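User: Predict Protein-arginine kinase's structure from this.
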Amino acid sequence: MSLRKFMEEALSEWMKGRGPESDIVISSRIRLARNIRNHPFPMLATNDQSQVVLNKAMQVLEDGSLQSISRFEALKLSEMSELEKKVLVEKHLISPNLANESRNGAVLLSENEAVSIMINEEDHLRIQCLYPGFQIKEAWELANRIDDVFESRLNYAFDEQRGFMTSCPTNVGTGIRASVMLHLPALVLTQQINRILSAITQVGLAVRGIYGEGSEAVGNLFQISNQITLGQSEEEIIDNLYKVVKQIIEHERAARERLMQESKTRIADRVYRSFGILSYATVIDSKEAAQRLSDVRLGIDLGLIRETSANILNELMVMTQPGFLQQYAGAKLTPDERDIRRAEMIRQRISPREA
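Assistant:
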């Protein structure tokens, strides 16, 4: 497969799209945790019991109930290679938990990959909707429609007082995890980020890296999500997140204006240096690539760099991950070989003269 063909087929819609506030908000995601009544949670289920859950979910797909929303394809984890599973994790379409530990795990993927429904992950169902830009309310509307389809055909584990019953107590209640991925380089450069993140945690929100809990916030990318799932409605949870993210966007924009007013020459030097390194480097590791890409994306958003697409950060933060690089190469690569391939892919994507 050629590099161009790989890039065209590898990207999900959320990576290619330009949603609202997309100069700062990379993506918006809703995830719903659901379980089927009178069936053991996945961590306690036997192979036969998890197969029953898989069959029930597949019946919903096969009876055409989901087709009014989108065309879906079912992928069973047992039929996939480790590399294929790794790529799905890197594209944020399945969780590491599903890829590594699931019994009779599967995922139902919509045609444009905006929706992924994980089966037999930590819970029987994990319904995920992923949109480009700041579209958390739109993602919730779609997730709610899909949830209604499953709820009309499956008997959910639900308690009138506690809400939806889940494997992890932190999901009990609404079972919702709403998250927004933000690119905040100006707040980092102006050393305001720690104060902002501290304030976020005090209003019931969590801050994580791009791959969720336990991941590092590389490339100035931060995932903001709700921690509270019990005692508030889904709308209240989303509204709280929406208001906080709007404030963060305003702070980031103000910080960018301040940089341009007070340190334009230094910022220009920083982003041009990173653009030059990415355009000509023959070896680059993932951490440096993430930081350099963050600089270039900031340069694009500030109008300093016009030679390449603003979607470069969305695309390359996924496409330069180990699984993608090895899929493109068609072979298992050593860390050094991945660094070489990563540099090659970035050069091809960032420099029009080599495309």
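Confidence is low (pLDDT under 50) at residues 1-8.
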